[in-house]
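S1.2 Input.
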Amino acid sequence: MKALVAYFSASGRTAKVASALAKKIDADVFEIKPTQPYTESDLKWANPIARCNKEKFGKKDVPVESKVENFETYDTVFVGFPIWYYAAPNVINTFCKDYDWTGKKVYAFATSGGSGIGKTAEKLEPYVKGAESLDAMIIKSKEDLLELLKGLK
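S1.3 Output.
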């Protein structure tokens, strides 16, 4: 299995989980960075005019700074992010639209504790067309991470 862990992290929590996961499975890592970085005020979800809300409710694409080289060589891709309104942030959707997912196993993992996983996998599905499988789960602890890894066998 050649694996990639691609992640977007707003607070650093997802970055830590992504790093731990990549080490456990000997995977490559790619940080998904928006071309315009988020500021603290951009992420204040309680403010209805904060950037994160405008993007989510306006269904806006969020341009990504760079692309994964040789994406076609990976057969398993883990995509990590914080949950925003029971789904992936729009930067994840934009990232996913740039690649051919045909035949890949995709595991989405989220690190938010506030919102549940909801229909995250279902909402992400149109952006990973052709994927062999898609699963999503919340990672709140080391035990959750181990549970995700058990599912790989």
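S1.4 Remarks. The radius of gyration is 14 Å.
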